[in-house]
Amino acid sequence: MAAVFRSTVPRCVPVLYRRAHCISSLREIAREEIGKIKDSGTWKSERVITSKQGSLITVVGHQQLEILNFCSNNYLGLASHPHIIAAAQAALQKYGAGLSSVRFICGTQDIHKELEHKIANFHGRDDAILYPSCFDANAGIFEVLLTDRDAVFSDELNHASIIDGLRLCKARKHRYLHLNMSDLEQRLREEKNARLKLIVTDGVFSMDGDIAPLDKICELGDKYNALVFVDEAHATGFFGKTGRGTEEYHNIIGKVDIINSTLGKAMGGASGGYTTGPKELIDLLRQRGRPYLFSNSLPPPVVAAGIKAFDIVLNSNNLAERLRHNTKRFRDAMTKAGFTIGGSDHPICPVMLYEERLASVFADEMLARGIYVIGFSYPVVPNGKTRIRVQLSTSHSDEDIDKAVNVFVEVGKKLDVIS
Residues in domain Aminotransferase class I/classII large (predicted)? Predict the structure, then answer.
């Protein structure tokens, strides 16, 4: 036994040395990259919130203050709505915390089917399929739908999840200039031999708050025999007269072929995404969509919260109308004060600053005065397009908005952004 022990010891030494050497190399590489990020002024520090999501929050290091939150996708204020919380709690008691499985094994409950039917009916489509997130929905669809016989046409500023999803498919890829219909048409015209053509766009672009010209995109789809796909993550539930999104905003409900969206923003604020469209597509995604087949099913409390969120939106349009009021109030006041605000008609309100370090300093100055906002810099936005992205919520009062504008003006003058 001793001889065996002595013979094995030397074998461990190279292994231990290799591991120490590899870890040391990893640490050094990471430190170098972190240094580059900090030197460029694009380092992103995470602030720790100690309260539920809402218009008023508490933040570590600022516990003495209730902070006004102007940097959340909680558009309709449903993330901490008492009816949403109650629905999630009831589902937790009845169905448990999770399914410990994927959908096709033992991870489908009646409430999953109920939510899918509700989503399909809300959008006026045949069927819907749930995913853990809209990122997963975007990651799962293109690989299944498109082959090397097909062609896809994607707006150059589409969300990262769309870009990553398209990388997985073998279709011929065309990237058209942002919102540029002439460029899109030229690319559609040049692609003559595709089995399927698919135009892919965000409905509302999350960094800029600008809106895809879906009506014109659908016209081009009809002209060149192309399908139209839209990601409605920043539109579902509140954009358009009854919250049906960018389709409704452009008065073309039913014209888009495939819609992906999320439950993690306006519709409850937790997590979960979905695809809705033709039944045959949804059936195919259930058989071949990798994020669906290999990820645990959506937890019951999240599903119940989603059901309740759709019920609230379907029952009344008051929340969306309040959000439109808040959006106009903020945009008008900030523009009058001299700030450059990106986008239009949307509660995403980018306050353009253009300089990386300036955005970080500006956000810190705002927090010190009781307003929670974040500076957005590369790689979240392109170089030279740094901004403070303000997001309005139904839960903001007129007084909240006026206070935020006043603080923006105070900090803007201090940092020579406005005069």
Answer: 67-407
Percentage of the residues of the chain whose pLDDT score is greater than 70: 96
| Catalytic residue list contains 385 | no
With beta carbons less than 8 A apart as the criterion, state whether 387 and 350 touch: yes
Is the same domain home to 189 and 131?
yes
> How many Cβ atoms are within 10 Å of 269's Cβ, its own excluded?
25
Supply the pLDDT for residue 125: 98
Least confident of 8-12, 72-76, 235-239, 246-250: 8-12
Residues 179 and 101 in one domain: yes
- pLDDT digits 0-9 by tens, 31-52: 999 998 888 777 777 888 888 8
Window from 50-54, 78-82, 152-156 with minimum mean pLDDT: 50-54
* Residue at token pair 């986008």: 343
Q: CATH number of the domain at 130, please.
A: 3.40.640.10
Residue 51 lies in a domain: no
Let me know whether 105 and 209 are in one domain: yes
Helix axes 134-145, 160-167, angle to 10 degrees: 30
The answer to whether residues 260 and 386 belong to one domain is no
Residue 267 in domain: yes
* DSSP output for 304-356: HHHHHHHHHHHH-SHHHHHHHHHHHHHHHHHHHHT--B-SSSSSEEEEE---H
Q: Which of 10-19, 27-36, 37-46, 403-412 has the lowest mean pLDDT?
A: 10-19
Which among 159, 234, 308, 346 is annotated as catalytic?
A: 234
Is there a single domain that holds both residue 260 and residue 335? no
* Residue span of the structural domain in which 408 resides: 56-69+317-414
Is 206 one of the annotated active-site residues of the chain?
A: yes
What per-residue confidence (pLDDT) applies to 255? 97
159 is catalytic: no
Single out the catalytic residue among 55, 72, 161, 206. 206
State how beta strands 273-277 and 127-131 pair. Answer: antiparallel
Active-site residue identified among 265, 308, 346, 396: 265
For the purposes of burial, counting CB atoms within 10 Å of the CB of 58, is it exposed (0-12), middle (13-18) or buried (19 or more)? Answer: middle
The answer on 194 and 177 residing in a single domain is yes
